[in-house]
Amino acid sequence: MPTVSSNRTSRIEARIAPEVLATVKRAAEIQGRSISDFLVAAAQDAAERTIQETQIIRLSLADQERVAKLLLNPLAPTPALERAFAAHRELIRESK
């Protein structure tokens, strides 16, 4: 679990149900932490997991195979894509 910095400069307040507080207190005691330290560490861990999950694309096996096949054997460019390539080449040529 990541270490919580002791250089705290912000404050967060939250209202929680008594049974949730009891659970948090118990978990903090088990880890030998204060409730505040436990909550900060748990929030940081949850935030990091959430961010990581948005950066990972999960595909089914069938989708993985489809992506691999398309990478190995790409489709021919459509007429619209060919026009876009030509326009891009023209823009690059003009900017030099």
In short:
This protein has 96 residues and is mainly alpha-helical. It is 67% helix and 0% strand. The termini are far apart.
Structural notes for this entry:
With 96 residues, the protein is an all-alpha fold. The protein has 2 domains: 13-56; 59-96, no CATH class. The protein is 67% helix and 0% strand. The protein has 4 helices and no strands. The chain has helices at 18-31, 35-55, 61-72, 79-95. Helix 1 (18-31) crosses helix 2 (35-55). It is elongated and about 65 Å long. It starts with 17 loop residues before the first helix and ends with a helix. The mean pLDDT is 91.
List its salient traits.
single chain, elongated, mainly alpha
Topology (elements, then pairings):
Blueprint: H1 18-31, H2 35-55, H3 61-72, H4 79-95
Helix pairs in contact: 1-2
Morphology call: elongated
Total individual domains: 2
How helical, in percent, are the residues? 55-70%
Oligomeric state: single chain
Strand content: under 5%
Topology as a string of helices (H) and strands (E)? HHHH
Helix count? Answer: 4
| Amino-to-carboxy terminus distance | 52 Å
For the sheet with most strands, the description reads: none
As a whole number of angstroms, the C-alpha radius of gyration is 26 Å
Are there runs of 5+ residues with pLDDT below 50, and where? none
Mean pLDDT across all amino acids? 91
Helix-and-strand structural type: mainly alpha
* Number of strand segments: 0
